Amino acid sequence: MSRVKNKVAMVTGGSLGIGKASAQMLAKEGAKVAITDIKDDEGKQAVKNIKNDGGEAIFIHHDVSKEEEWKNAISETVKAFGGLDILVNNAGVALDGSAEETTLEDWRWLMQVNLDGVFLGTKYAIEEMKESGGSIINLSSIEGIIGDPNLAAYNASKGGVRLFTKSTALQCAHDGYKIRVNSIHPGYIWTPMVKNYLESKGDLLEGKRQLESLHPIGHLGDPDDIAYGVVYLASDEAKFITGTELIIDGGYTAR
Ligand code: NAP
Cα(131) to centroid of ligand 1, in Å? Predict the structure, then answer.
């Protein structure tokens, strides 16, 4: 119950799915948590759940693609809890389509959230953490490691997150900041993102069955499967880990 005791964490996209589970688990393990998202009602409910369980949390409205909103979210977190030790760059969006099918407008929309968001968060978190240290955790994907012909923009963004993480980890180590930076690469996790995607394709149950068959372990992941990885990388148990990629995918990329 105290693996991240008294640390201050910010989780972007924390109203739903993996971010919500990560915020809950960080709070359960003793962190004070700022949940940020564009979904206000769900975010406020997630804060209520944490408080009902005896944890500390606040909600901040925050679009990760906007630089001014990053400055505000970090300063609100520091004002509420006195610092920032953990940033989980979790907010992300998905878009299916090959390179031929994807419009420039859709490409730019996705990059603004998945890449600009991680860049801005990392940049401003380093500024806040460089004296005291910290842990930055970036949500990439198995789609940042292997290609999928129908996920051109998503593949590009998550591959970008993977190498941006390594670049930043090396810079922080080189400059003597005690900031560790790592990426997490989930397989398919049963969240609103995946449910909405399958629903848009028509057959939710058949789509789920097809996705399950791609995971050697035989089922999809739960948000908590990723939250366990987040808590580990956030905690001092991972003090020798930086610039690495934690794959949590039921064996998807083992073949
Ligand atoms: P999710 O269920 O869609 O939840 C993500 C949350 O982030 C939603 O509340 C979403 O709001 C919010 N969000 C979207 N754009 C935002 C923005 N510009 N600023 C702030 N918040 C924003 O997603 P998830 O499945 O939990 O995924 C979380 C992360 O893990 C993403 O980076 C995703 O790419 C990655 N990931 C997911 C899976 C998976 O299978 N689920 C696998 C690999 C990697 P809206 O609902 O309004 O968009």
Answer: 30
